[in-house]
Specification:
The longest helix is centred in the first third of the chain and has 24 residues. With 358 residues, the protein is mainly α. It starts with a helix and ends with a helix. A hairpin with a 6-residue loop joins strand 2 and strand 3. Helix 6 runs antiparallel to helix 11 and helix 11 runs antiparallel to helix 12. Strands 1-3-2 form a 3-stranded mixed beta sheet, with helices on one face. It comes from Psychroflexus salinarum. This is DUF3810 domain-containing protein.
Length: 358
């Protein structure tokens, strides 16, 4: 019976690859029959089953996976590579099962309709449009920064406990009145990652476990960054699997919320991407725009930069390569660079909103 199961799972793997190829050509199928139907049901079920657990079940799941793989390698060496055919069959069956569960519970969202098509907006924009959007963000960021501090040279300190920020971000999603983005988020399922130290060395602020749909955040990062990090991971939980789309969702949710600290986190988050994109197009203009920012805002940016510099090393470079290849394998051909495309969504979305409001 065991051999029959192993053979079935092994043969099922190439069929899965064929299915993925077909779905990549038909994103509307994924959107209609998975992302906006089956996934909503299964994700809500996952949230109800795991949200009450005080620790990250997803982190524990990954730990068990690593132990299983190490045990398999140990047995391989212990038997001196005998019964190699059976061992390879076990490995292929294991990969096939994990691959299936990954897509069933979350991964098919990688092949859904691109968000800009769902919103009916373009991904093209001119340097002038980017400049106008960036200047607007600078004005709003400076104005809000001045409300939150007594002096423009001071950075904004977040005197919140992390659990309080979780509640604020959850409320931001639940109370959102944005009609363009469907946000069926009913059960809070954000947790501190047990692997926050490794995540720091790897250069990651958080992640969503696709098997449990728990949102894990790196509790070591500066609190100023936590609102957008949490909002980003919730975006993934809602089925926006692509990084640029989750960043866009996080920006919208935090920038449009009533809480000033969430808005500040969101504005500076979107502004950083805009300034980076402007630097690629016109370095001198980018520097001129940065000079218009309150010095306290720059100190918030520096706070985050210094945090990541403290953990910079070979592990980060390895993880960037691995994760970049993972993104490319999952319908994000730009890999890590796809993060910058959030600017295209933001510029065109707010330009459209402005036109509609007029």
């Amino acid at each position: 019976m065991k051999n029959i199961t192993l053979k079935f799972l092994a043969l099922f793997f190439p069929l899965q690859l064929l299915l993925i190829y077909v779905l990549k050509q038909n994103p509307t199928w994924v959107e209609d029959y998975y992302s906006t139907s089956f996934f909503l049901f299964i994700s809500q079920l996952q949230h109800y089953l795991t949200s009450w657990i005080p620790f990250s079940l997803g982190d524990l799941f990954y730990s068990i996976l690593v132990i299983i793989m190490l045990m398999w390698v140990f047995r391989l060496f212990k038997t001196k590579f005998r019964r190699m055919r059976t061992r390879l069959l076990e490995a292929l069956a294991f990969v096939s099962l994990i691959y299936f569960l990954f897509h069933l519970f979350w991964g098919f969202n990688y092949y859904r309709l691109p968000l800009h098509q769902s919103l009916g907006i373009s991904t093209d924009y001119t340097k002038e449009e980017l400049q106008e959007f960036t200047c607007d963000l600078i004005q709003k960021t400076n104005s809000l920064h001045s409300e939150l501090v007594s002096n423009d040279s001071l950075k904004v300190d977040y005197e919140f406990r992390q659990i309080q920020l979780q509640k604020l971000v959850f409320e931001a999603y639940r109370n959102s009145v944005n009609q363009d983005i469907k946000i069926p988020y009913r059960v809070e399922n954000l947790k501190k990652s047990l692997f926050s130290l490794p995540l720091s060395y790897g250069g990651f602020s958080g992640y969503v476990n696709p098997f449990t749909n728990e949102g894990q955040y790196n509790y070591k990062i500066p609190k100023y960054k936590l609102p957008t990090t949490m909002a980003h991971e919730i975006g993934h939980q809602l089925g926006y699997s692509k990084e640029n789309e989750a960043n866009f969702i996080a920006s919208i949710i935090t920038m449009e919320d009533e809480n000033r600290f969430l808005r500040y986190s969101g504005l500076t988050f979107a502004l950083k991407y805009s300034l980076n994109d402007m630097y690629k197009k016109d370095p001198l203009l980018s520097e001129a725009l940065i000079a218009e920012l309150n010095s306290g805002v720059l100190k918030n940016y520096k706070e985050v930069q210094e945090f990541w510099q403290a953990y910079t090393g070979p592990v980060e470079l390895i993880m960037e390569t691995v994760y970049g290849n993972y993104l490319k394998a999952n319908n994000q051909p730009q890999g890590m660079e796809s993060y910058s495309y959030v600017v295209a969504l933001l510029v065109n979305y707010y330009q459209q909103k402005q036109i509609i409001n007029h």
